[in-house]
Structures are given as C-alpha cells and as structure tokens.
C-alpha cells in the first residue's frame, strides 16, 4: 500500500512539474485567440483614443513596459499600489514618479473586461499598449507574445535594477545582460529615446559642475560643447527638478531614427546615450542608423521588444492583476512544498488551489 501511495504521489508530482514547465513556455502570439478573439483590436482602438489627443503619452506608456519588465520580469507589478507606507510599491519609487498614462491602462482594461471578463492579464495589456502607442506615432508594428501572469509583489527598492540615465557601457551591459539582453538590444532599445521628454535632473550633472571644479566650463567632455548652451537655456540651474526637455528635439512625438543622429553628434542628453559611442558594436549600430533604412531599425526594435517581453515572466494561464487594472483572479493548481513521510521515504508534494473569483483558461 505504501509503495502504491508513493508511486501515485511521485507520478502526480512529475505531472505537476511537467504542467508547470509547459505553462512557463506558453507565451505565444495569439494566446487569447479563443478566449478573447478581439483583444488586440480593442486595445488598439482604446489606446488610439488617448494618443490621438495626447501623443506625448506614448513615451511614458512605452517606458512603463520597460520599467515593468526590468523588475521581476514582465508581470504587471508596476501597476500595483502601495498598501503600506513603510513598504512602497514600484510605482512610488523615484525612477517611476515621472511615469504617466495609468488612466490609459485603466481604460484599456475596462474595455477588455467588458468584452472578455476575467481573461486577460494586465501584464499582457502593458505589452500590447506599448506596441500600439509606438505604432500610432508612426513607429513599427510587431507581433506581441501574450500569456503572462500578473505579479503579486511590488517593491520600490527593486527599481535599483533599472538602468539609470547615468550608466556607462559597462554598467549597461551588466544590467541588460542580467536579464538576457545583449549589446545590440541595448543600442536598439535606446532608440526609444527618440520620443518623449526628460527632467533636467536626469542630466544636469553633465552641463553643470561635471567633475566638481565649480567651474562654469566644467561640463561632460562626452557632450558636444556647442550643445551645452541650448540645454542650459532650458535647465537654468543644476537644482532644477521640474523643467522638462525634449530628448529628440523636433521629432519627440514621432517614432523615428533621428535619435541616432543626435547620439553620433554627441548630443544625446543622457550619459547612457553617450555610452553607446564607447563600445565598438553599439557605435557601429549608431553609425548604420545615420543613413541606413529605417525599416531595419523598425525590425530590430520589434525583435528586441519581443525579447524583452520574455523577461522572467511567469507565462501561462492568467493570474493576479495589478490593483489599478481591476483584473479578476484566476484559479490555479500548483505544487507547494510540504513534507510527507511515506514508508521511510520523504516525498515533497502537495496541491494549493487558489480559490479566487474565476477559473479561466487563457487559450
């Protein structure tokens, strides 16, 4: 009897592990083809209503997806609200305080819930919205893989894993490499700086007192000296915390490859932009973008976005949502760790059923 019980438990555990692995590899294009066939059309239409009126929302919504993926993978934790003032969530960490567009995600979620209640994760909506806002400001369109679970944990301190604007190429390679991205991904995804604005505080150290000499001429030598007066005309003090500056002047509302022209002229406003010229591979890519076909950049950007979208995400059937998105929670069966002693053999096996509001099959 004991041996039969052990066999049954072992078989069940093996099956659970197989199913768990299968779910972890379930991220794919068309994950909701059956359960929410009009998903992408709904997301695109809803997003377009906002971008058509306020195209500057495209940049923060794209950045929201970046910032979500670099912390615990692409699992929507950027949407979770702080519930304990002594333990703030990601969205309340300094790097995320300038993010905007949560109301767009709320509207998209409401529209999707109306059509397909309790099916689509907020993490997937972030990925779809990021793609759509880029497309809607004349950028590329790529196939978005879906099937992510939403995360339950959001910790402000973990935003230290976000690549800072002051990063050099060594730090960029280390931080991107830690999440499975390479040098090409760094330079390609940096192309997102072609849209949006930055606060002066993110780069003012480059135009004021760069090396600590307290000298008016003490600026970052990697920044075009003829460009410094223009930046100073916008950021009139090293302590300016409120003024915003276009990252790609003249086309900050259009997704194009002009950013690389600025970088090649040493006019990228961040130190991380300048860092692209200090590595042979990233520098070569910048040079190719000057006169190369924009279609190549668009293709590369889509490929790197898909790659980033696979970061450590808990793919599979829908899970818990971010608090802002109002997503109902699905029911899952998964192995947990308890010890059972059967015939002198320690077997680790059990089931934990999360009895939430619905049991949704996401395929």
From TrEMBL:
The record marks 63 as: Transition state stabilizer. Binds 2 calcium ions per subunit. SUPFAM superfamilies: Heme-dependent peroxidases (SSF48113). Its EC number is 1.11.1.7. Ca(2+) 2 binds at residues 194, 248, 256. The keyword Transmembrane applies. Heme b binds at residue 193. Pfam families: peroxidase. Substrate binds at residue 163. Residues 26-326 form the Plant heme peroxidase family profile domain. It is found in: Secreted. One of its GO terms (cellular component) is extracellular region. One of its GO terms (molecular function) is metal ion binding. CDD domains: secretory_peroxidase. Its cofactor is Ca(2+); heme b. The chain crosses the membrane at residues 332-357. GO terms for biological process: hydrogen peroxide catabolic process; response to oxidative stress. Disulfide bonds join 36-116, 69-74, 200-235. Residues 1-24 form the signal peptide. It catalyses: 2 a phenolic donor + H2O2 = 2 a phenolic radical donor + 2 H2O. This is Peroxidase.
């Amino acid at each position: 009897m004991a041996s039969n019980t052990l066999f049954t438990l072992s078989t069940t555990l093996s099956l659970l592990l197989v199913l768990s692995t299968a779910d972890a590899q379930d991220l794919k294009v068309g994950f909701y083809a059956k359960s929410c066939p009009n998903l992408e059309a709904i997301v695109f239409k809803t997003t377009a209503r906002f971008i058509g009126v306020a195209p500057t929302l495209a940049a923060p919504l794209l950045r929201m997806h970046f910032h979500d993926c670099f912390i615990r993978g692409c699992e929507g934790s950027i949407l979770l609200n702080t519930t304990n003032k002594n333990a703030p969530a990601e969205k309340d960490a300094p790097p995320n305080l300038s993010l905007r567009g949560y109301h767009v995600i709320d509207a998209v979620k409401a529209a999707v819930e109306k059509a397909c209640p309790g099916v689509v994760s907020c993490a997937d909506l972030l990925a779809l919205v990021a793609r759509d806002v880029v497309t809607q400001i004349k950028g590329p369109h790529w196939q978005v893989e879906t099937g992510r679970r939403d995360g339950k944990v959001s910790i402000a301190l973990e935003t230290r894993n976000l690549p800072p604007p002051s990063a050099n190429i060594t730090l960029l390679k280390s931080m991107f490499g830690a999440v499975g991205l390479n040098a090409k991904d760094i330079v390609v995804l940096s192309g997102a700086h072609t849209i949006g604005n930055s606060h002066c505080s993110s780069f003012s150290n480059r135009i004021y007192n760069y090396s600590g000499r307290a000298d008016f001429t003490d600026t970052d030598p990697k920044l075009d000296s003829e460009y410094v007066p223009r930046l100073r005309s916008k950021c009139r003090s090293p302590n300016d915390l409120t003024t915003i500056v276009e990252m790609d002047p003249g086309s900050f509302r259009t997704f194009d490859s002009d950013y690389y022209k600025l970088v090649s002229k040493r006019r990228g406003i961040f130190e991380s932009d300048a860092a692209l010229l200090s590595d042979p591979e990233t520098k070569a890519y910048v040079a190719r973008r000057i006169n190369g076909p924009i279609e190549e950049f668009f293709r590369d950007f889509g490929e790197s976005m898909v790659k980033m979208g696979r970061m450590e995400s808990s793919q599979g059937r829908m899970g818990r949502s971010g608090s802002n998105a109002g997503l109902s929670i699905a029911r899952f069966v998964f192995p947990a760790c308890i010890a059972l002693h059967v015939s002198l053999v320690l077997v680790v096996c059990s089931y934990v059923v999360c009895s939430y509001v619905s049991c949704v099959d996401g395929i």
